[in-house]
Amino acid sequence: MKYTIQLIRSVLFNIAMYIAMPIVGLLYLPWAIASPKGAIAGCHRYCIVVIWLLRWMVGMRCEVRGTPPTEQALVAAKHQSFLDVLMIYHAVPRGKFIFKDLLKYAPVIGQFGLRIGCIPVKRGKRGAAIKKMLADVKNGSALPGQLIIYSQGTRIAPGVKAPYKIGTGALYKEMDQPCYPVATNVGVLWPKRGFYRAPGVAVVDFLPSIAPGMPVNDFMTKLEIDVEARSDALAAEAGFHG
Q1: Which domain covers residue 83, as residue numbers?
Q2: Whole-number Å distance between alpha carbons of 57 and 32
Q3: What is the largest CA-CA distance in the chain?
Q4: pTM of the predicted protein model
């Protein structure tokens, strides 16, 4: 009975979350058209709405630990569900993502993503896109900020091991900026599939930054060890022992 009630609450939350997206998008659209700052504000507002709905409707509290970057930096994160996208973005002032080129055509997400500086990348052309982004920031045509990348390339369920892709190391070398690893346990409470949302504390943890200049292979090893160990600890904290 308790599970059924929580499932009903979860389904209602999902409906509310997707209804909120076009509403927030429309409210912030004029400002977003006029300035990227409006798109950034709209995206942050949507994160706030979803985080509030989670606590009110399903009893899930969101917590950010560590020190998120405020300077230009690379953020290399663990990805377990849509929730870590929202929490990480809301934790930094000017976040932007690398996303698949097709997403730029998605309603609301695509348009706002382009306005906040997200980088649509076609398969095999990530390097060229990153070089253009860095050049645009340097000449003032793009806003500086925090570039968020998911090192494993996709959502990975808690307890599942998957390789870290060398693209993160290439970005680290190319950007010559600090890298902030981010661990999380959100997948324990908000699984990558299904509608069920569990009560508890969802955490994203910004780990100590890795200074630029480390050899790429050493960087990748450190990134994986740090993020995986901390994510496993956070998952255990949330009650996962798989």
Answers
A1: 61-94+145-237
A2: 29
A3: 60
A4: 0.91
